[in-house]
């Protein structure tokens, strides 16, 4: 049974909890992280006793990338029919010229799409100012992710002929989302075919911070980025504490994972947690401040681990819109300053794909804190040299120099792209930590947490009083944790007052 409350805490009724009927240790799980900037999915199709590990789809689309998420952008044809999603959609639209682009619908700014309460009836503007209902756009994104996940799973010889009905679907939602946001996502999930009236008990929603912390609590001590890990740790094959469970097309590596030797954990408790022992970071009564450093926004949520391992949300701070895109925007301003006199503006307008490739290259620099080089496209060089020699563009720009086809950026300049964002994050953390919430750990997750500059700054500012943790591959923590919560829904505090539809279905 679950208790349904009104806004004042008064008990309205009690209903049978259907959420836990299908979910469990041996459930088939697909988790979807529908992010405003990037999206992805993870899945687990093997019972725990068979050694099944969570798999994550890798995305690249021939761009030399290998990422656990793809841009949340979608392309429709002139008739409003779905064409492409993610990297493929962005590349295809950028390749269109003039009238062809005007005929299509391309959406990528999903932050604007979820403003206001009556989202289902709202419309969202495409890049060319054409409009489509927000519900249809979100539905087609979920439909693509669902179909692609099933296709990926079926492609393996042992995958089987699974259908959507075979899975428990776990959708992650930002901690600051309101009830109407979640109602809207439920409607989109049903229309996208994730669940039907007969299987609606197999749809779960979990908070991003809950999912991320759940994954971190599962890790052994060497599953975190520490001083003992080099800056390249995230690119190396994962240790046994966090096996490399990515899945790119038909490449499955479960057998390799099974054979890896498990390290001896640092035991501080005999309490069983997810089938293993809890270490220092996982003891009951510990309080964690989860900092979800996303592409668009940064979220701050404090959780407590209760007796038995369930998570209780203690405090949610307002989000801050200084995520990864803000840092990228500072980098673009830097390029605009180098290629002055309208050179960069003209290049950005006429060579969208090349500009996007430079942004992808820049995103790889998150893991370093030193002088870096980024390749300069040949057509940008040609455009610049119509005005003057390429080297002279760098004469008056501090922290930048030309190096035989590449733009060299000094360590100090690279750090400056993060300055304002880090200042705001530090201020927000101090405000939360001064609330006497008895926090012991600061947990950094999300794409921007891959930044060595960010991690080092937070450690320098708060490391003497709090333990700062960041899992290897922090961008994957939410997806992997969502799968764990799909199999262990009891890990979220059972008595938390969620809205009725969120906890049970009428």
From TrEMBL:
Q: Which InterPro entries match?
A: ATPase_NBD (IPR043129), Hsp_70_fam (IPR013126)
Coiled-coil positions: none
List the GO molecular function terms.
ATP binding; ATP-dependent protein folding chaperone
Q: Which domain of life is it from?
A: Eukaryota
Q: Which UniProt keywords apply?
A: ATP-binding, Nucleotide-binding
- A Pfam match: HSP70
Instruction: State the family named in the UniProt similarity comment for this chain.
Output: Belongs to the heat shock protein 70 family.
Q: Which PANTHER family match?
A: ALPHA KINASE/ELONGATION FACTOR 2 KINASE (PTHR14187), HEAT SHOCK 70 KDA PROTEIN 12A (PTHR14187:SF5)
Its recorded name reads Heat shock protein family A (Hsp70) member 12A.2
* Organism annotation: Poecilia formosa (Amazon molly)
């Amino acid at each position: 049974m679950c208790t349904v409350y009104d806004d004042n805490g008064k008990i309205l009724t009690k209903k049978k909890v259907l959420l836990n009927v299908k979910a469990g240790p041996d459930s088939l799980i697909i988790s979807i992280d529908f992010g405003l900037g990037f999206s992805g999915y993870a899945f687990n199709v093997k019972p725990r006793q068979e050694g099944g590990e969570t798999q994550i789809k890798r995305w690249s689309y021939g761009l030399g990338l290998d990422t656990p998420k793809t841009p949340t952008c979608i392309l429709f044809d002139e008739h409003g029919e779905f064409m492409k999603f993610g990297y493929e959609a962005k590349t295809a639209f950028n390749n269109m010229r003039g009238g062809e682009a005007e005929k299509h619908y391309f959406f990528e700014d999903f932050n604007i799409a979820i403003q206001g309460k009556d989202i289902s009836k709202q419309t969202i503007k495409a890049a060319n100012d054409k409009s489509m209902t927000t519900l249809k756009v979100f539905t087609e994104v979920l439909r693509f992710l669902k179909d692609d996940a099933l296709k990926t799973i079926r492609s393996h010889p042992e995958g089987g002929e699974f259908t959507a009905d075979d899975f428990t679907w776990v959708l992650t939602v930002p901690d600051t989302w309101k009830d109407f946001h979640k109602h809207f996502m439920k409607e989109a999930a049903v229309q996208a075919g994730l669940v039907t009236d007969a299987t609606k008990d197999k749809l779960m929603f979990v908070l991003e911070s809950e999912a991320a912390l759940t994954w971190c609590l599962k890790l052994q001590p060497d599953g975190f980025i520490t001083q003992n890990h080099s800056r390249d740790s995230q690119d190396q094959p994962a240790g046994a504490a966090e096996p490399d469970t990515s899945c790119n097309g038909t490449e499955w590596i479960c057998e390799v994972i099974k054979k890896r030797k498990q390290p001896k954990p640092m035991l501080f408790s005999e309490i069983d947690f997810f089938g293993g022992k809890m270490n220092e970071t996982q003891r009951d009564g510990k309080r964690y401040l989860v900092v979800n450093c996303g592409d668009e926004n940064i979220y701050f949520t404090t959780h407590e681990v209760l007796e038995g391992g369930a998570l209780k949300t203690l405090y949610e701070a307002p989000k801050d819109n200084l995520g990864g895109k803000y840092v990228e925007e500072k980098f673009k301003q830097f390029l605009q300053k180098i290629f002055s006199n309208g050179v960069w503006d003209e290049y950005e307008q006429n060579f969208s794909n090349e500009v996007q490739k430079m942004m992808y290259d820049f995103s790889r620099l998150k893991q370093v804190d030193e002088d870096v080089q980024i390749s300069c496209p040949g057509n940008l060089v040609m455009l610049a040299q119509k005005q003057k020699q390429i080297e002279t563009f760098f004469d008056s720009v501090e922290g930048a120099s030309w190096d035989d086809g590449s733009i060299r950026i000094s360590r100090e300049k690279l750090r400056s792209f993060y300055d304002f964002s880090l200042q705001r994050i530090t201020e927000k953390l101090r405000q939360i930590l001064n609330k006497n919430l008895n926090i012991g750990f600061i947990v950094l997750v999300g794409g921007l947490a891959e930044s060595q500059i960010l991690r080092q700054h937070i450690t320098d500012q708060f490391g003497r009083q709090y333990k700062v943790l960041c899992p290897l591959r922090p961008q994957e923590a939410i997806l992997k944790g969502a799968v764990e919560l799909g199999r262990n829904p009891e890990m979220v505090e059972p008595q938390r007052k969620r809205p009725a539809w969120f906890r049970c279905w009428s």
